[in-house]
Amino acid sequence: MLLFRIRADVTHKFELDRLFDPSSIAVVGASTKAGKIGYEAMENVHDFGGRVYPVNPSAEGAAFGEPFVASVTDIDDDVDLALLCVPAPVVPEVIEECGAAGVGAAVIYSGGFAEAGDDGAEIQRRLTETANEHGIALLGPNTSGFVIPRTGLYGSFATGVESFPAGDLAIVAQSGGVAHSIAFQATRERRGLSAMVGLGNRANVGFEEVIEYLDGDPDTGAIVLHVEGTDDARSLLETCYDAETPVFAYKVGEADVGDFAESHTGALTGDHALYQAGFAQYGVPTVDSTSQLLDAGHVAATAPLPDGTNVGVVTAQAGPGIIIADRLKQAGVSLPPLEDETTATVNEILPGITYSANPVDTGRPMPEFGEVVRAVAADENVDAVLVYELHEAALGFPTEDLDGLAESVGKPVVFATAGPESLLEPDREELESVGVPVFESPERAADTVAALAEYARVNAEAAPAEVVDNA
Amino acid sequence: MLLFRIRADVTHKFELDRLFDPSSIAVVGASTKAGKIGYEAMENVHDFGGRVYPVNPSAEGAAFGEPFVASVTDIDDDVDLALLCVPAPVVPEVIEECGAAGVGAAVIYSGGFAEAGDDGAEIQRRLTETANEHGIALLGPNTSGFVIPRTGLYGSFATGVESFPAGDLAIVAQSGGVAHSIAFQATRERRGLSAMVGLGNRANVGFEEVIEYLDGDPDTGAIVLHVEGTDDARSLLETCYDAETPVFAYKVGEADVGDFAESHTGALTGDHALYQAGFAQYGVPTVDSTSQLLDAGHVAATAPLPDGTNVGVVTAQAGPGIIIADRLKQAGVSLPPLEDETTATVNEILPGITYSANPVDTGRPMPEFGEVVRAVAADENVDAVLVYELHEAALGFPTEDLDGLAESVGKPVVFATAGPESLLEPDREELESVGVPVFESPERAADTVAALAEYARVNAEAAPAEVVDNA
Known about the structure:
alpha/beta, seven-stranded mixed sheet, acetate-CoA ligase (ADP-forming) activity (chains A, B)
């Protein structure tokens, strides 16, 4: 059983600009006590660049220099975004007040809604109805929020989110905790983010609305999704299909974790195989972990996408090269024979080369290594290039040879290496700055290239005519 | 078809002390020119703590302050170890000289032997015969060497190997490049190593000899193997089985990479499924990547091993908890119901807890989080504990509650988290110092615990009586 493909005429329910690009923010339940959500949220947004209003009827004085007000209705300003740091039972009333005050969007951090049984579901139904009446976009409830690094908008109550580097990848996760886990991994690995969004219970802002918004965001080069389950899979798939931005997905719940998952964001995980097939049919490759999602998304956002599934591998060490070839083949990627011309060129550059088929194994790093990579990248049998080279301090990386190569051949050129951080770091940064993403394990590089190849496959097979429209 | 299990009466072919713990080293082909292997090897060993002799008939003066000699036979000292930085055709003659000089062991870095066709195989046959006559242990040929971080012995020509932290895990890889890749990953992730050994072509020192040696090394708490293929799989398996030290293996070559692999260390990759089954039958769990190998080996080397395959999961964020539960179940690990007593204790610690089954989901980090982990660790239904908690700066980790917990319950307690490096680092180091390994992705923590559970399974099922002897 496969899902049908029907192009949806999806319309924006809300103007998400007021959520993701607000001019003013109210923090409802703001607190001056460190560790409380109302404090952490206030700390994260207090200098975001617009007006911030701490709201708390039982507080006096000021928070982060801003005087407390008793209610959003007391604010003499158009508040775009309200961050709700109050417990579930109070939320419907606060949303009423937000409606009265003309607030455009709200993030609801607290739990105790649809994920917590019938009573919570009833509260969520009520507040969603109110929000819909007033046209308030709701992120959550039951989410740790969102972050837009480029503008310094930290709509999350987690600590340390100001460390997220700005960049091209948007993370959209059903779970706020997973969104933060991926974003912190990205930070550790110097991968820039255009947005991090944790959806939570998706009261009226779901995958569709956020994907559409990010598809229109010039700073977003790729979108990655963490999906537990949704009631309307087709709507999600159609939105992905309509997006011009490449989308990759990580569908959790292959094993039976339904009970626990339903207790989370109130959604069943559904049939895992059906989701995988559905995503593929709608042009979305799926991956198997948060790090694979990050890796594939980062490269898709910053490098050319491959036109097909043929990969050329160049390695300076046979052992990691074998791991890479093995891993790519297991993932269904092909390592085609190189053109005769390429083999001749490689043998001319390096007479007596260890192995000049695909993978090309140079036996050791050497000054001509970059030339060999260029020759393989130019090969018409090859849609993407994966290079492995153990870092040698005396030699560095072939940065000059690879500068602009990916753009000029229109194929991703991905590098994997190993070495001590202190010696490796400057060379790695240089190589990344000329358009070559670098990984520090052979498997992560191989999985990334396999995901890119899968992107080419599912988009070629899916619906050529329509895909061409979108490309 | 499964391999038979027969306990082997394996005897040491060589005293590997002269290889891994030498008092004096000759560097044959030593050079004063940076970038040459003879320079890099010399640089890496010149201050290892014993005498170092640069050997080069065509060089004059000194290298790193040591005067050149023309041949190992000119050295007026018992040389334990010779590092051969000379091309393949010269190696047999140098080995002859090593034999005449009473050298105990040699590392042969160069390629061009069995992996390079019939002529190379003939050279390798000749030099092995000579080495065997003189009782010289040969590491390689075609390897980048070995490192013993604790003693500062860097028998590798790679740069930066002095950064490897000393610790409890021994890496034994068929490929020197893979050995270095894993060791540099370990370095980046602060996992200590007792040894890193790249075997290469295994002229007369193979997996068996190195595993036996490391099994007798009091500094080695676990051994991890990277295996491409070997002519005598049973001998390898029996050696693993006889070792008292836990062994984990990564068998490469699930896809057909035979051609390329044979060109590497002269070994066929063989039947992948047969290897996996063989390893399991002999008490060795297999994993699927270099990082999984490192992770499982690190925890096995530093924490108690589980007695069974039942895992208790505690999470402060549902989303990552679902990922962990999903991943564990996919790997065949069970998440059993907790004892009534445990559930009661958890509900007493945290009334109104989000989800008190297994996984236990506390909904958010809180001061009582460590108490909840202690309760689950004490549960008799549980053989290992996996904890997820997003780092919150105001709260830190429950280090005091977890101090010594793993040892006292005799179960591994593994932690996964996410957070910004600057805030996370001191708390992570504290937590690791009290016996709790920390991972920064939910999947890596889950894969590690799954590998530990697999260790319990294959050792329980394999041959109980004999396994008990070894435990």
